[in-house]
Design goal:
The chain has 14 helices and 27 strands. The relative contact order is 0.16. The protein folds into two domains: 201 residues, UDP-n-acetylglucosamine1-carboxyvinyl-transferase, Chain, CATH 3.65.10.10; 209 residues, UDP-n-acetylglucosamine1-carboxyvinyl-transferase, Chain, CATH 3.65.10.10. By secondary structure, the protein is α/β, with parallel strands linked by helices.
């Protein structure tokens, strides 16, 4: 049981400098774990570069509830055994957004699914209607009652031509998973293009599924039976963790090298930071970022990939507090991801929220305060605000940090931050 009462204490005034190593992608790991459930019962799927975070532990428990065997050691996850059961514990589903993927998995592998609505961060309405509508078109009949979804398809799912009214990452992944065992060909138009989608497609290809177009706005999946051979897959590096450290170094006027990353996955953010006056250069797997601490006003819109990720919106707000003049940040993905604004105002930030946009007036200083981080990204942003505040900042929400990052506090310490947890 996590101790949810642990708080993070940050003393401001330290520039982040040195080197930091990026873990495997949280979001890619979770959907690849779900995909592994579709492997043949005599096949072992090995995932490398898997981050040691609490969400991975919950996902492993969900796999075990389906009948799979899961082991984890030294960033390597092995998944084997038979997909037997079509029901998942409601409490586990309610603790993690990635549980949604098992709807597509169970419908593909068992023609029946019973699971609670997903949980995760409280960042506004995150319905699964796009998932349900498109799976229904593929032949799933479902009822949604009391926070539980039950789906059935006695004759199996059928490939269809589908169009998503919004390029949802979760819906795109769920349809790909369902289509991988459906009868015939499925095409998904206006689908998500995120690198995590490409990573999922690469894993499923190794598992015998033919997929074309991943990374574009139209993906085609040809349903097939699972191959009877072991599969090994390296999960991509986490572009959100990369973006967090890029922005954190910029916030503190630091100088650091970010290693084991994929710079091109963060091109929109790199361009945003460069326009703000931050120096950035990179090669195939590392980024060097240098900031004088003098930041130009920002005008940013977060949107589906290849735009700036919504997950980085709170961090960019903190960066804008240091900017000269007024900045604006608009979120087109989760317009309610602004729970952290009230907390920043306690520190002396001047942030005005209207609809899906925040306007930030730069201030000369922030004051340390007691703050509450209500989700992973909010807690991260408040910690980074503490790095530049006068005095000590206390942030509640360590359990959120551990959902999304491995050794986040230790990595900040390694870059010179004065930070502790108790």
């Amino acid at each position: 049981m996590q101790n949810d009462n642990r708080h993070i204490f940050v003393r401001g005034g330290k520039r982040l400098s040195g080197e930091v190593y990026i873990e495997g992608s949280k979001n890619s790991t979770l959907v690849c774990m779900a995909a592994a459930a579709l492997a043949d019962k005599d096949t072992t799927v090995t995932l490398n570069n898997v981050p040691d975070i609490s969400d991975v532990g919950v996902m492993a428990d969900l796999l075990r509830a389906l009948g799979k065997t899961v082991t984890y050691e030294d960033e390597t996850l092995k998944i084997s055994g038979e997909l037997k059961y079509a029901e998942l514990p409601r409490e586990l589903c309610g603790s993690i957004r990635g549980s949604t993927y098992f709807l597509g998995v169970m419908m593909a592998g068992l023609n029946h699914a019973y699971l609670g609505l997903p949980g995760g961060d409280r960042i506004g309405d995150r319905p699964i209607d796009i998932h349900l509508d498109n799976l229904e078109m593929m032949g799933m009949k479902y009822k949604l009652e009391g926070g539980v979804v039950e789906g059935t398809a006695p004759n199996g799912l059928k490939g269809m031509d589908l169009f998503l009214r919004f390029p949802s990452v979760g819906a795109t992944c769920n349809i790909i998973l369902a289509a991988s065992r459906a009868k015939g060909k499925t095409t998904i138009s206006n689908c998500a293009k995120e690198p995590e989608i490409v990573d999922l497609a690469n894993l499923l290809t190794k598992m015998g599924v033919k997929i074309t177009g991943a990374g574009s706005d139209k993906i085609t999946i040809y349903g097939s039976a699972p191959v009877k051979q072991d599969v090994v897959h390296d999960v991509i590096s986490d572009r959100i963790e990369t973006g967090v450290f890029l922005t954190a170094v910029a916030i503190t006027g630091g100088d650091a090298v970010i290693k084991n990353c994929i710079p091109t996955h963060n091109n929109p953010l790199i361009q945003t930071l460069t326009r703000a006056g931050v120096f950035i250069e990179y090669n195939d797997n590392e980024i060097h970022v240098v900031s004088t601490g003098v930041i130009s006003a920002l005008k940013v819109t977060t949107m589906p990939y290849p735009g700036v990720a919504t997950d980085l919106q709170p961090l960019l707000t903190v960066l804008a507090i240091k900017a000269d003049g007024e900045s604006s940040i608009t979120d087109l993905v989760f317009p309610e991801r602004f729970s952290y604004i009230y907390e920043l105002s306690k520190m002396g930030a001047k942030v005005e929220h209207n609809g899906n946009t925040v306007k930030i007036k730069g201030v000369k200083k922030l004051d340390g305060s007691k703050l509450v981080g209500s989700d992973i990204r909010a807690a991260t942003a408040l910690i980074c605000a503490g790095l530049i505040a006068d005095g000590t900042t206390e942030v509640e929400g360590m359990h959120h940090i551990e959902r999304g990052y491995k050794n986040f506090v230790e990595k900040l310490k390694g870059l010179g931050a004065e930070i502790m947890v108790k």
